[in-house]
Amino acid sequence: MAKLLRWLVPALLVLVWLVVGGMGGPYFGKLEEVQSRAATDFLPRTAESTRVSAIQTALADADGFPAIVVYESAGAVGPEAIAALVAQTAAIRAVPGVAEVSPPIPSAQRDAAGNIRAAEVFVLVDVVDFAGTVMAIREIVAETPEGIVAYVTGPAGFAADLTEAFAGIDGVLLLVAVAAVLLILLVVYRSPILPIVVLLSSISALAASVVGVYLMAEAEWIVLNAQAQGILFILVVGAATDYGLLLVSRYRDTLREEPNAIRALLRALRGVIAPVVASASTVVAGLLCLLISDLASNKALGPVAAVGIVFAVLASLTFLPAMLALIGRPAFWPAIPRPEARVEGTALSHGIWTRIAGLVSRRARVLWIASVVVLAVAAAFAPRLNATGIPQDQLLLGEAESVTGQAVLERYFPAGSGAPTVVIAPAADAEAVLAALRADEAVAEAQINGTPTMVNGEEIIELTATLRYGPDSDEALAAVERLRPALRAVSPGVLVGGSSAISLDTLDNAERDLRTIVPLILAVITLILIVLLRSVLAPILLLATTVLSYFAALGVSGLVFQYAFGFPGADPAVPLFAFVFLVALGIDYNIFLTTRIREEAILHGTRPGILRGLEATGGVITSAGIVLAATFAALAVIPVIFLVQIAFIVSVGVLIDAILVRSILVPGLLYDIGRPIWWPGRRIR
Fold first, then answer.
1. Which 3 state secondary structure label does DSSP give 35?
2. Cβ–Cβ contacts within 10 Å for residue 268, how many?
3. Angle, CA of 20, 26 and 28, to the nearest 5°
4. pLDDT over 90 percentage in the chain
5. Do 657 and 624 meet the contact criterion of CB atoms below 8 Å apart?
6. How far is the C-alpha of 248 from the C-alpha of 269, rounded, in Å?
7. CB contact at 8 A, 666 and 523
8. 597 phi-psi bin (left φ>0, alpha ψ -120 to 50, beta other)
9. How far lies 292's CA from each of 287, 418, 510, 668, 671, in Å?
10. Of the candidates 486, 31, 487, the residue with the CA atom closest to the CA atom of residue 229
């Protein structure tokens, strides 16, 4: 009976996961069905710009997303060409999803004969399928009169190009990430079998995660976007592979001590359950702290990524051990581990890590102080990461029609054309508010739109102002910040919204998130570490090294972004996302190291335990760091500056953490302090 169970239980577990993976396969393609592409879904929930958007929707009885068709000619645009453009506007008006179309508006620039050089057409498109509508408009305007070139730009044009950049994310991104991980695992294991087994476990976890996220989005528990979907793929593959590396490393060590492969596997599994569950708990807790964000794009990432981590743990502690149980020692072929003859009480040899442990025992203080100095120098450049926002026309890397069109638009029209600042005011104060708007130096033109309307028992009216600056430029944001108190001094009930106001409110909310979510994550992770290590001093030291590593990664990235890549800045959410991933995932490696140190310290004492723990986990932590860095680096295949920056910062930070902090700084610091690291708990003897 025991022999039957020895095969039956693992076989059933593998079968269950294969069924889950088979069910999850079709859901990879279905995730796009539950993705939200409506711009209003990602506004700050309680911000002034959001309230303006809601009132605009009520006033118009429809939600619209503005696009701009801009025409440019190398020569003059004569009457015949103008007539052709008017005919095109009629064709655009007939496109499904188009709500409103303006007539062609000529530029002020004219030649000596009075002929115009450019024209623009404003189009209001449906927010739900704006990408398809923009593509249809581009097909129409491609047929322009000879000598005239047309571009579709504006907020809807930029959003459509972003959507196109994310197209095929589930295929290309997953393929790049899996290929990178497979190559690394082949080098690490030098075996053709183990990499496939570990990757199969990771893909199974991802398939289950995709089903869970799809159901959550379909039930409208979360607002899913392509950004969160891409990070989910990367995070699950990276985390599940890391957990698999820890189990396989422990299993290989026990196979060198235990003749029976099943007993060796059970010993290894018992040894990794606590650190894997604890590390996953810190990551999940850190991610769920994003739920208090006021930005829907941040808020959605928390539960999406947390679901992925949960399934990564489940697959690593059930599917992977079951596969290893069925395969046995041959999984490590051709370098199959066998029990070694050695003196009782001596540690297994771990090659270079045995030598590094010896160096730590001799030069602990010099090593950790030198490591801190190096990290501190790098961290000093963290302010170089200018996370105050990126102009809309620089969000995409490479060529994009919306970017080219925006440059053409700004040559002939006020830069704020097509993305006006919207003002909602009491109808009785409309003229006074209009005069205050026109008095501001940043306003190129302003007007009253429509007629007074009753909303929530108050008669209000809409005004629009076209700014002289690009809608998300520093000057435009400063203008909105200045206009809000100035207009409320004229009429206390005024609300200011529009594209520039949305950018300003998003930046303000991102700064608020950084101030509130970061301390919360630190507090939650500290509590988890205190419970896990039964110490206060050790968790504080570990967290301090992780935070220092985070700032060092920001410093290195800031220098590279500014001087090597020439990026115009960084999205306001970049420091928060980088913190969540680097601190939560960095603590993973702390937990892998310190739980093994505690285990060894109970048997051999604190300082010998630190050296043994470093020897046993040094290789697996470094390998795990390289795997995670490679998977996050795969995000760079998406030509969106935000994801490229996240990919670089997290990859650099993880490598710093795994190679320097966890291998040199933490062991040296703990060894130098010795037994007091367990304060105030009962000291390990």
1. strand
2. 23
3. 95
4. 13
5. no
6. 9
7. no
8. alpha
9. 10, 33, 12, 37, 39
10. 31
Residue 40, pLDDT > 60, answer: no
What's the longest Cα–Cα distance across the chain? Answer: 100
How much is the mean pLDDT over the chain?
A: 83
Q: Do residues 451 and 461 touch, judged by C-beta distance below 8 A?
A: yes
Distances (CA, A) of 306 to 15, 50, 228, 506, 528: 25, 28, 11, 24, 16
Write the pLDDT tens digit of every residue in 236-259: 888 898 898 889 888 888 888 888
Find the length of the chain: 685
CA distance 200 to 237: 10
- Residue 678 DSSP code: G
* Distance (Å, whole) CA 505 – CA 461: 22
367, two tokens: 């090593």
Q: Which domains does the chain have, with CATH numbers?
A: 1-34+168-344 (1.20.1640.10), 48-164 (3.30.70.1440), 413-505 (3.30.70.120)
Q: Classify 493 as helix, strand or coil.
A: coil
Token duo for residue 142: 């491609």
**Interatomic CA distance for residues 421 and 438, integer angstroms:** 12
C-beta separation of 636 from 643 below 8 A? yes
Whether a cis peptide bond, with omega within 30° of 0, leads into 26 is no
Residues 6+ away with beta carbon under 8 Å from 523: none
Q: Give the burial string for 56-78 (b: 16+ CB within 10 Å, else e).
A: beebeeebbbbbbbbbbbeeebe
Q: Answer for the pair 600, 608: CB distance below 8 angstroms, yes or no.
A: yes
Q: Report the alpha-carbon distance of residue 131 to residue 194 in Å, rounded.
A: 43
What are the angstrom distances between the C-alpha of 79 and each of 82, 84, 85, 143, 499?
5, 9, 10, 17, 34
463 contacts 449 by C-beta, under 8 angstroms: yes
Three-state DSSP state, 448: strand
DSSP 663: I
Report the alpha-carbon distance of residue 372 to residue 376 in Å, rounded: 6
Q: Which amino acid is at 265?
A: L
Alpha helices in 328-383 (DSSP H): 352-379
Closest CA to 122 of 148, 79, 157: 157
Is it the case that residue 376 has pLDDT exceeding 90? yes
Task: Give the C-alpha separation, 507 to 572, whole Å.
Answer: 6
